[in-house]
Input
Amino acid sequence: MRNSRITGIGRHVPDRVITNFDLEKMMDTSDEWIRERTGIQTRHWVREGDTLSGLAYNATMKALDMAGKKPGEIQFIIFASLASDHEFPGGGCFLQKKLGIPGVPAMDIRNACSGFVYGLSVADQFIKTGMYDTILLVGAEIQSTSLDLTTRGRDVSVIFGDGAGAAVITPTEKEEKGVLTTHLHADGTFADKLWADAPSVNDNPRISKALVETDRIYPKMEGRFVFKHAVTRFPEVIHEALAAAGYTKDDLDLVIPHQANRRITEAVAHQLQLGMDKVYSNIERYGNTTAASIPIAISEAVEQGLIKENSLVCLASFGAGFTWASALIRW
Ligand code: COA
Output
């Protein structure tokens, strides 16, 4: 039996930084409200000409560099994102084209904030069975172009940012190393608590002039409802991973939760009785970058020396669907 390991990790965010003060000029909000309720101070938003596959490509090249691999060595692409460069096909195909590796399979995962952990679990299975030896897993998101930047959409619009993170995943024969266990969950009962209603295939025609004048095309969220579920599901799925691998929270070197909101991260730390030095947070600089948030955070934590050889790291996510997931990794 072999395990899968992340041997390369990289991130890329657009260079356009949007402060809370910039948002004050677009809608009725304030730096104070945003910082107090979410912890966010800045986020990166794309400019004209940036593409989702472009962000993903830049993150990928950094991850490949760390892994000491070339694009031609990738055998499988898993692309986690709510979006794609175009309505279809999926973003994995656009990334594959940029990488110049035709013929390599590309699979998209649309599990919002849980996309990266879902993708890691899929990659882990393919490595374990011996099907592939080098898998590229990307979490990438452009949210800024979908937002309602008026006061009507302020609860959602101040939260989200754009970015990409990529991981190169390869096998290890050491059974105590790498991805030790993964746990995936979903509950579609709450799909409409965090979603974009339209465009919907249930509308005929799917897109009309009348539709674009409604607010159905914008992401919507019942913030308090999402918050309550998140602070329950995060600790639950972390405990599930620890129990499956025979560890306790005291064995953890670092928890990397999906960066949804600083208050959610603090609540998770509190419930796990872990200090904030053990629970990674960078939401103040990026906002919520959906599928990109976990790989961006891993990449920073590795760079900062918070994750090193043999560190026990738990990834945990919660987001639209609802979906939630965890992965326990011995680095
Ligand atoms: N700026 C200023 N005021 C805002 C605002 C903004 N950007 N967004 C909402 N408000 C207002 C509301 O209109 C409301 O005003 P009212 O009391 O006059 O009606 C007030 O602030 C409180 O709104 P509420 O939604 O109850 O605030 P909250 O304390 O629940 O905080 C969130 C809102 C979104 C920050 C919070 O619910 C949250 O973090 N939810 C989880 C979100 C999340 O993590 N989503 C992603 C999951 S992957």
Remarks:
- The chain has a mean pLDDT of 97.
